[in-house]
Design brief:
Elements lengths: L1 H14 L5 E5 L5 E5 L1 H22 L12 H28 L4 H26 L8 H18 L3 H20 L8 H20 L1 H4 L5 E2 L18 H4 L7 H27 L1 H11 L1 H6 L4 H27 L1 E2 L6 H14 L4 H17 L4 H18 L22 H9 L4
Antiparallel strand pairs: 1-2, 3-4
Length: about 425
């Protein structure tokens, strides 16, 4: 009862001004102050009952919530992980076939795959190398603007501008990596946050090159290896004997970003098994021990920033060609925070977790679109619950990437004995 009362008192202090009072336009146009004490009382009562239920039911389970799950169920879920990944990919491949006539779901799938690709790229920096980056939207913006400027200035095709955008973003990642070689933790986060704001302000004020707040419009759309998606005789539909439909371009964009996202995930998984990938994981666990082992931390950090930025540049180039218009408002700190939330929610270092988190977060936002007033409240509460009960993410993974001979499971009893026992 004491814990529940304290929680209700804190909720009252937080929500008394946010929910208890409201300003509405009056008959003369001036704002009129109205009260909503009934709603405030309901929120405080819900917090009280929730805290009381938590204290009565969950307090008896000491430690993380994973201890409530039987060991046999954990083993079964672990064996099902590869099948779940295959099922997730198969469903993603058949989405355009199942929802061909639903433009809304196709666009949602494109956005989800784009953010999943961004999450895969940031997962290299944050999840594998352990370097907190709060300015990842800067690489996203560099890829988009590089694609737009090169395509409009030199008239190059999408398949040439896409790798150029990724390469330029990778060079920017190396440029960012040098000043932060000696930084870690909060200091690294502050520098990357400042870098993201610098890029946004440069795009906003360099009007001769970037168009400033007006952005860049008329960005060329991608074609199917030279076949445009239009109703002409040389278009995609006429070449393959199909009836013209605007959905053809949407389906092509969906499969294009899906292929890019899967390629990013595959490359990341392969890199984890290489020496550079194991160096990233060693750097994440302990930088001092990493140096003691003779690993060049300078090269390790620079490669993590460069490769992560390259994938962000690829996603930015795709975003530019899909939208046909870009502006600095699309690359604010909110984008960096959203991608970071995907990585943390899914589980740092987990590729499947990032994909699931992107689908859950984008789908959740769309599901609560009709409840716009409470959407952020529900989203924030869900994030807090995940961080309390699943602190390592929905699909946490800290398994070694390479085993000497075979993977061996250490029994829990031996681990507990090693933790509590005293050396002889």
């Amino acid at each position: 009862m004491k814990e529940a009362a304290i929680a209700a008192l804190i909720a009252f202090g937080l929500f008394v001004l946010l929910i208890g009072f409201r300003t509405d336009p009056g008959p003369t146009g001036a704002l009129v102050l109205s009260t909503r004490f009934g709603v405030l009382a309901a929120v405080v009562a819900a917090v009280f009952l929730g805290a009381l239920a938590r204290a009565l039911v969950l307090q008896q389970f000491a430690g993380p919530i994973e201890r409530m799950v039987p060991v046999s169920l954990k083993a079964a879920l672990s064996r099902m992980a590869p099948y779940a990944t295959a099922a997730f990919i198969a469903f993603a491949i058949f989405v355009p076939i199942i929802f061909y006539n639903n433009r809304y779901l196709l666009d949602l799938g494109i956005v989800t795959a784009t953010y999943a690709m961004l999450g895969f790229g940031l997962n290299i920096v944050v999840g594998l190398a352990g370097l907190l980056n709060l300015g990842y939207a800067a690489f996203y913006a560099i890829g988009a603007y590089s694609y737009a400027l090169i395509a409009l200035t030199f008239g190059l095709s999408f398949w040439i501008c896409l790798p150029l955008g990724g390469v330029l973003a990778a060079l920017t990642g190396v440029f960012l990596g040098f000043p932060v070689l000696r930084l870690r933790g909060d200091y690294l986060a502050i520098v990357t946050l400042g870098f993201g704001e610098i890029i946004r302000l440069v795009l906003l004020n360099w009007q001769n090159l970037t168009g400033g707040p007006n952005g860049i419009s008329g960005i060329p759309r991608p074609s199917f290896f030279g076949l445009p998606f239009n109703a002409t005789d040389h278009g995609f539909a006429a070449t393959f004997g199909l009836a013209y439909s605007p959905t053809h371009r949407v389906v092509f964009l969906y499969y294009l970003i899906l292929a890019l996202a899967l390629l990013t995930s595959w490359v990341t998984l392969r890199l984890r098994r290489l020496p550079i990938g194991r160096a990233w994981e060693a750097l994440r666990e302990d930088e001092i021990a990493c140096r003691a082992l003779g690993i060049d931390t300078t090269t390790t950090k620079l490669t993590a920033f460069a490769i992560g930025a390259m994938f962000g540049g690829f996603a930015g180039a795709f975003f530019a060609t899909r939208q046909g218009f870009i502006s600095p408002e699309s690359f604010t700190f909110t984008e960096s925070a959203f991608v970071l939330a995907i990585v943390v929610l899914g589980g740092m270092g987990s590729q499947l977790g990032v994909a699931v988190a992107a689908a859950v977060m984008l789908g959740g936002f769309e599901f609560f679109r009709e409840f716009e007033q409470y959407r952020m409240l529900v989203f924030g509460a869900a994030m807090v619950a995940v961080m309390i009960y699943r602190p390592r993410g929905l699909i946490a993974t800290r398994k070694p990437s390479v085993f000497l001979r075979e993977q061996k499971i250490v029994p829990a009893a031996i681990v507990g004995e090693a933790r509590t026992g005293t050396p002889a």
